[in-house]
Amino acid sequence: MALSGSVSTSSYEGRYLTLSWSATQSTSTNQSTISWTLSANGGSSSYYYTGPVTVVINGTTVYSLSSSDRYAMYKGTVASNSIVITHNTDGTKSFTVSVRGAIYSTSVNCTGSQTFTLDPIQRGASISQTLAGATETTISMNWVSDSTISYVEYSTDGGSHWVGVGNPNNSSGSYTVTGLSPGATYNMMTRVTRKSSGVKSTSYGRNTTTYSYPTPLWAQTPNFTIGEAFSVGLYNPLGRNVHFVITANGTEVYSLDTTSAKVDVPNTIADALYQTIPNDVSALYYASATYNNVTRQTRATYYVGNDSAPTIGSATYIDANTSVVNITGDNQKIIPGKSKLTFTASNLSAQNYSTLSSAKVTINGIDYPMTLSGSSATVSNITITSTDSTATVYVTDSRGLTSSKAVSLDIVEYVAPTMSATAQRVSGFYSSTEITPATNYTYIGSNTVTIRLQARKTSESSYSVTQTISSSGTSTVSLDNQYPWYILLTITDSFGGSSTFEITIGKGIPLFYFDIVKSSVSMDMFPTHSNAFEVNGDIYVKNEKIADFIIEETTDGIWTIRKWSSGLCEVYGTYSDTSSTAYTNAGVGYYRLLTVNLPNVLTAIDNPQVSARTGNVGGVTLRDVSATALGILIFSTTTTGRPIDLYFNIKGRWK
Known about the structure:
Immunoglobulin-like; 56% strand
């Protein structure tokens, strides 16, 4: 037995190879590490050539040169390394070293081989461990060995630290580790000392977890609605006696002691739960489990169901407008735009410790807040304008839960009164005028209509006749038949609804009237003279008014003056002359300036219009026109002997 040695090959011309080795041993691994050195020896030169070289230790080739290599091998160390050799289970081990080389040759010509026996390694005992049990703070392990053990140790951190257990003087045993943390994982290892060799052996590590303290399970802590029974799952693998508590919104509502893995919470805690949230529809609850003065908890949400909404005993309305009710005779009849409604919600009740918060009535999408008083709510002075209106009363509690109740509305299809009418003068022309209306209004209760007549001459802006006429049948009103009239009729019902109707009636004088008493005929008037034809207006023939007449005709020199009844004034005259040397040569003819005096009457004429003409000279032009004279320019083709006639016509208004 040895821990070192060497082996040399046969030589060629005094040259050979030597492998030297030494060994270190490990008790824990039952292995020896062989460190080796290959050296070249012999010969007179410092190197020699070799061919293939192979070193095999314990069946493993640890060095080789291929047969194609030619290597100048210097004396001394050629190569060095190490190899690990595992001993037999009893600690013994023999191994063989062989060296083969080709010295100055291409094939092996020098070999050496030797078997060595290593010093035996003192062996530790075999050791295995199993889990005997665990609690929240302890782990118990069983161990067993093939040898008698003089000392046992354990490690909870994979061998970094060791704690002695004692001297069992046995090949098996157990131990318990205390003071551990709940729910923690430990890498358990057992180390034993073999009594016969004093060698220590260590087991493989085993990850072992202590139990956690009992705790409610998050995944089994449900949300629930008050009134429902529910269960909470517990992590309680060791069946510990756990104190279980439900705390809702800061108030303990349920508790019991249990060894079970599930707690069934009865629905009898509903009343206590309602009390914890009088002003909300949900809150958090906590499920806690206490063991050994350690409390673990989970949480979830509990809700108030819609069945806890407030209740409405009744929802009613009345028409509080007494003026309308006096007409309809029924405070349930609604006249759109007229009725003033009061809504009342009675026997209101908040549920399960909530309180009433607000109330409203909604009509056609419009909210009308109601005033709460005890168990009732009211709102007044609501006017409805549509016949298809709907009403709903809503009551809300302190949790925000709302109940509703529809209110059936009895709405009358009310329309404002309307009318048409005819107007006819008696016999077609008298001032007495008959008015006959046709009315349309809502027939309900004592509703009636009145008609007010207003009349004015069409030429005037203010009404001069006002009276009330019958809504049925014919009424008579006096309207001067000398004038056309505009009539405004206003119909109003008992509710105050109204509309108007307009009529225009012409004068009462017929276009032609034959008066047999006066033996006269008149147009657009009644005769005022006997044996006469009278016209209230003008008479035109071919666009010329012929009904005018001359009231005065006079002369003034060459002028004739006529005054007409209508205010027209005509002045006409003729001026005669003979051309003479007084005409001035204009190159192509002759001209003369002439002044003709006008009659005195023209000084009183408004805006006189003067025209002049001639038929036997070259032309005439008015140059100046005044109230007393005319300035005239006369053209002529000769200077002497030619007669000249000028015709003048002047029109204007004398009144």
